[in-house]
Amino acid sequence: MVAQIGEAKASTELVITWEALPDDFPLENDPVDNTGQPMMAGVLSESLEISGFIQPQMLIASNFGLCATLNGKFFAKAPDWLYVPSVLEILPNRKSYTPNLEGDIPAIAIEFLSDTDGSEYSARRTYPPGKWFFYEQILRIPIYVIFDPDGGLVEFHSLENGRYELQQPDENGRNWVASMGLFLGTWQGEKQGRTG
Questions:
Q1: What pTM did the predictor assign?
Q2: Domain spans in the chain, listed from the N-terminal domain onward
Q3: Who is most buried in 74, 86, 156, 191, counting CB within 10 A?
């Protein structure tokens, strides 16, 4: 499957193809930015499990490779947490996922803000593209959330007319995720010996 993205301001056309992960492609194996990130991803998945939301055809993962080929170069990005409504084949030991080839695009991707390089906001178009650009222009993920664990701030970006727009939360500090039929917000309390 091929998609082309062109912008009036851009002098180069982007050619996106959806190909399977090459057997010899080295996936990033960087450690997480802090010890709280795996717990936060786990809480998101656990909340869905407790509510009875999770179905076998869904893909819910953390630090998991999303793949695409941009202008003939293969690359992968690993969001801190993601939800794909339906995959074509249920694989117990999936190590990566190529949207459009293997099923739906993710409905939501979440990044936990790191204090290192601000890569969550990177709109870099050149290889390797930044996360923001990858989610917005390559995959066109409908919802991109950036969460600041230190301040508890949730930035909820919704894809509108091909660009992410910041959405304001409701009066309870939550945003509606229509594709899931659920609200996303913060919770203050103690989990696994941590308060936050």
A1: 0.86
A2: 12-19+33-195
A3: 156
Q: Which residue is associated with the tokens 């695409």?
A: 68
Residue by residue, what is the 3-state secondary structure of the chain? CEEEECCCCCCCCEEEECCCCCCCCCCCCCCCCCCHHHHHHHHHHHHHHHCCCCCCCCEEECCCEEEEEECCEEEEECCCEEEECCECCCCCCCCEECCCCCECCCCEEEEECCCCCCHHHCCCCCCCCCHHHHHHHHHCCCEEEEEECCCCEEEEEEEECCEEEEECCCCCCCEEECCCCEEECCCCCEECCEEC
Look up residue 186 and give its amino acid.
T
Pick one of 3.30.830.10, 3.30.2010.30, 3.30.460.10, 3.90.1570.10 as the CATH number of 12-19+33-195. 3.90.1570.10
